[in-house]
Every structure is written in structure tokens, then in C-alpha cells.
Amino acid sequence: MANTIRLYLTCIRNTLEAAMCLQNFPCQEVERHNKPEVELNTSPGLIMNPVLICRNEAEKCLIETSINSIRISMKVKQADELENILAKKFLRFLSMRAEAFQVLRRKPVQGYDISFLITNYHCEEMHKHKLIDFIVQFMEDIDKEISELKLSVNTRGRLVATEFLKQFI
Amino acid sequence: MAAVAVHQFAECITCHAWSPDQSMVAFCPNNSEVHIYKLFGEKWEKMHVLSKHDQIVCGIDWSLKSNKLVTVSHDRNSYVWSQEGTEWVPTLVILRLNRAALCVQWSPKENKFAVGSGAKSICICYYEQENNWWVSKLIRKKHESSVTNVAWHPDNILLATTSTDGKCRVFSTYIKGVDSKESESSSSDLKFGEQIAQLDLSVTWAFGVRWSPSGSILAYAGHNSMIHFIDDVKSNPSAQSIPLRDLPLRDLLFLSDRVVVGVGFDCNPMIFTADDTGLWSFTKFLDQRKAAPSSSRGSQLSEAFGKLYGTSKQVPSNDTVEPSKPRGGAHENCITCIVPLWKRGNTTLCRFSTSGLDGKVVIWELDIPK
């Protein structure tokens, strides 16, 4: 079980190393504009084939690259209803504060839980290998965070129920 | 055999060019200005700031004989700057483009310059003496996507271009009145805008086209980490494509007819040499690195590239996770531009400079065997 996460993350890291070769590219459709081509989606010649990396049916990562931007969408593991709710709330909390993260997208791509949008400007300001480290670390930590949240919810529920039911003893 | 000098000029440099005597360097620090620095002994001092453009200046070229600077920008404009006294005076060039300009290069005789643009066209500009301004002639309708790089053939007439549609094309830019004195043959294929050849070797975006010093070999890089060499384009083209182990190249430079330097996303210049039979191969990286990448990383990268471009390669996976190693070496971020530095009196080129997104300009020196 522990082995597959290493494989999954290594695969994502290597794909990102290959995919994150971005450059400044002015928009071909509109003059004087510079837009992330992966979001614009009008010129098929400027967008590469999307790569989908699946760990199992529940966890996957979609990497879409273009000449000046890359979009990484991930679906995190949600084993039961409680994890579903926790994941949704936690990731929504992060997405609402997307400005602080800079590379986070405010809305996840349809069918996924969270999305990152990295443009050539991010690659100019920050080191590419640090960006990739951040994404991979994020994926690793998300699982831990949700497990911790679930544990604390269950513990708290047990404590509250114990205290409440004491009055009936 | 390595980096001779490293200069940190700004946070990020888009492109750069050297003055004819190599004492001054002009570059764009990723904004709409061009900064010119001069070397006084050991220190660089900012001499001039040319700020006429509205958007990022993406191409600068400094003509060696006539000491003129041409700049093109994403705002569809181009200026030719000439030094009068201590000031640089701009002359607007009407390019008649409706999209951004992407690259510029002076012709070998410096009477024309070519601009590649996102409007899927090329502008060839020449100076009209009677009206005292620069006129542009456009080559339209041949490109299917943005023109990323242009390169002049030593004969001042042929121009090679690379585009994001993956093709490398060679055009004739013969202009009556400008080229008429020099041309020996008056064959029909010398018409302006005539496409001499179209090379379909790359399935992905093509960058960094250059001619060899003799004009017999053409080289360009594809974004799928390949470099293509074409011999004898006009009559009997024969091509060689070499896949690279690591990340793609952005720009190339011919040091001689047998040696090519490629720079790109690896942050390390690569040397390619041709042996006596004309067969090209990768020789080495120029920069000594502290951490050597393992071979398994290389194979996984090529598999990743294969997935991105729709081809499939079967490679066994590796269990260990490698955290990103710090690169070491002169450049920390992608190298975008490589410029030759000719030594006076030398016929072979052994010095060149590179600039990258880390804001550094690095001068390299190489010994080339004859």
C-alpha cells in the first residue's frame, strides 16, 4: 500500500518535469493579449495531449499542457461519506484562498477535486523544481490531512456522545 | 571549456545582444524597456534605458557593421535605434502586423532585417533612402501558426523560419533595388516570398533555426526534445534527427560547420558535433554539474514525453522516489537566447554568450578542434 503512493508520485513528478517547459507566448487570437493557452482552448496546435495518471479508480491526476501554461487537476481518495464531506470542505477552503497560493485555480476542473494553473510567469519568478516539489508535497499531504481530520471528527464525536450520555447513567 | 564570466543583470532576461566591440550589452529585463550596460574595468554600469515599447521586448539585434539596434515587441511595433552622440534615437518601423512580433534578426549585409510574428507572417524590412524610413514587405499565407524564429542564410537572400505548426520553411527575400546589385543569377525562384522548401520533420513546435556558416546545413530544434539537421536544403535535402535525453532546446548556434551549441530548458548548453561523414551526434553538456542525473530519470522523462506527444514507449518503472536535486551550474532557469561573440581576426567562433530567465548573462569559451 505504501509502495504505490511512491510510484504514483514519481510518475507525476517526471511527467511534470517534462510538461513544465513553458515560455512567454502572446495570444494568436486577440492582439496585445497574453492568455494561458490551456484555459483558452481555441488553438489545438498549441495544446499538447493531456496525460491522465491513475493510482486506482478513486485517485487520479490529469495534466494538461500548452505552450505557456499547464493545468494539473487531481481527484483525492474519498473512501466514505465522511471523507467526501471533509475533502470537499477542506479543498473548497483552499480554493477560496487561491490568491495566496498563486498557482491554485479557484474552481477545480469538472470531475476533479482541485486544480492548479501554472503559467510561464510563475516559472520565471519561481524555480521549476520547487514548483514541482510543491505540487507533489501537496498531493502527499492532502491524504494525511484528510485522514487526520476524519480521526479528529470521530474522536470528538465519541467524546461528546460519552459526555452527553453520562447524564442518563 | 566552460563559463568564462557570469553576470547577474536582472530578475529575468528575455533576450540580449552585444555591441560590435563587445563592450556594451543590450537586454530586456522582462518588461517593455531595453537596458544597455557598459563594462568599465570590472564593473557593469547602466548607460541607457530605451523605453519606447508598450509591452515586453521579445527580440533585440545589434548590427555589427552599422551599429544599429533593432527591437521588436509584443505590442506589434519595431524600432531601429541609432546612436547619435550619447543618446539612442529611435525610428519607428511600420511593420503592418496585427499580432505580436516574436523575433528579429539583421541580415548578414545589414541592409534588411526579418521579423517573425504571431500573425503567422514574416516582415522583411529594408531602408528606403528617398523617404528616409524603413519599409516592410510581408510574407503571408504560408505559415499556419506563429513564427517563432528566423535565420538568414549567408547569401542575404534566403531566410529560414520555424513555427509553432512544427514546420521549418525556407523563403527567398529578394528585393529589387536592395539585392539587385549582389545577385549573380536571375533565376525564377528568386521572387520575393517564394517558398523554397518546407521541412516537416518535427511533429511539435519548432524553435531555434540557424544556418551553418557556409550556408550548407540548416538546424532547428523541436519541442519533443529533438534536434534536426538538414544538409543541402535547396537541391537535395537529406535530414538527420537526433533525440535528446533531457528537456527540449530553445535556441541554437553554429560554432563551425561541424559544431553546434544548443540551449534550452536544461539550463546547460549542449554540444553537438558532426564527424567526417557528416553524421551528427550529441557530444556533451558544457557545464560541470555537481549532481549527475541517474539514467533511470532519463528514461522516465522520455516516457513522459512520449505520452505527451501521443507515442508510447514501454519502460520499466522505478520504485525509488528522487527528490529534485538543486541544479548547480551557471544558469538556474531556462536559457532562452544564445549570441555569438566574434573575436577580431578570428574566422572560427569559440566564444558565445547565453541569457536566461534567471536574469544572468553567461559568457562561454570553447576550444574547437580544426
UniProtKB/TrEMBL annotation, chain A:
<comment type="function">
    <text>Functions as actin-binding component of the Arp2/3 complex which is involved in regulation of actin polymerization and together with an activating nucleation-promoting factor (NPF) mediates the formation of branched actin networks. Seems to contact the mother actin filament.</text>
</comment>
<dbReference type="GO" id="GO:0034314">
    <property type="term" value="P:Arp2/3 complex-mediated actin nucleation"/>
</dbReference>
<dbReference type="GO" id="GO:0051015">
    <property type="term" value="F:actin filament binding"/>
</dbReference>
<dbReference type="GO" id="GO:0005885">
    <property type="term" value="C:Arp2/3 protein complex"/>
</dbReference>
<comment type="similarity">
    <text>Belongs to the ARPC4 family.</text>
</comment>
<keyword id="KW-0963">Cytoplasm</keyword>
<dbReference type="GO" id="GO:0030041">
    <property type="term" value="P:actin filament polymerization"/>
</dbReference>
<keyword id="KW-0206">Cytoskeleton</keyword>
<dbReference type="InterPro" id="IPR034666">
    <property type="entry name" value="ARPC2/4"/>
</dbReference>
<dbReference type="InterPro" id="IPR008384">
    <property type="entry name" value="ARPC4"/>
</dbReference>
<dbReference type="Pfam" id="PF05856">
    <property type="entry name" value="ARPC4"/>
</dbReference>
<protein>
    <recommendedName>
        <fullName>Actin-related protein 2/3 complex subunit 4</fullName>
    </recommendedName>
</protein>
<keyword id="KW-0009">Actin-binding</keyword>
UniProtKB/TrEMBL annotation, chain B:
<dbReference type="GO" id="GO:0051015">
    <property type="term" value="F:actin filament binding"/>
</dbReference>
<comment type="function">
    <text>Functions as a component of the Arp2/3 complex which is involved in regulation of actin polymerization and together with an activating nucleation-promoting factor (NPF) mediates the formation of branched actin networks. Arp2/3 complex plays a critical role in the control of cell morphogenesis via the modulation of cell polarity development.</text>
</comment>
<keyword id="KW-0963">Cytoplasm</keyword>
<comment type="function">
    <text>Functions as component of the Arp2/3 complex which is involved in regulation of actin polymerization and together with an activating nucleation-promoting factor (NPF) mediates the formation of branched actin networks.</text>
</comment>
<comment type="similarity">
    <text>Belongs to the WD repeat ARPC1 family.</text>
</comment>
<dbReference type="GO" id="GO:0034314">
    <property type="term" value="P:Arp2/3 complex-mediated actin nucleation"/>
</dbReference>
<dbReference type="InterPro" id="IPR036322">
    <property type="entry name" value="WD40_repeat_dom_sf"/>
</dbReference>
<dbReference type="GO" id="GO:0005885">
    <property type="term" value="C:Arp2/3 protein complex"/>
</dbReference>
<dbReference type="Pfam" id="PF00400">
    <property type="entry name" value="WD40"/>
</dbReference>
<dbReference type="InterPro" id="IPR017383">
    <property type="entry name" value="ARPC1"/>
</dbReference>
<protein>
    <recommendedName>
        <fullName>Actin-related protein 2/3 complex subunit</fullName>
    </recommendedName>
</protein>
<dbReference type="InterPro" id="IPR015943">
    <property type="entry name" value="WD40/YVTN_repeat-like_dom_sf"/>
</dbReference>
<keyword id="KW-0009">Actin-binding</keyword>
<keyword id="KW-0677">Repeat</keyword>
<keyword id="KW-0206">Cytoskeleton</keyword>
<feature type="repeat" description="WD">
    <location>
        <begin position="140"/>
        <end position="172"/>
    </location>
</feature>
<feature type="repeat" description="WD">
    <location>
        <begin position="50"/>
        <end position="82"/>
    </location>
</feature>
<dbReference type="InterPro" id="IPR001680">
    <property type="entry name" value="WD40_rpt"/>
</dbReference>
<keyword id="KW-0853">WD repeat</keyword>
<comment type="subunit">
    <text>Component of the Arp2/3 complex composed of ARP2, ARP3, ARPC1/p41-ARC, ARPC2/p34-ARC, ARPC3/p21-ARC, ARPC4/p20-ARC and ARPC5/p16-ARC.</text>
</comment>
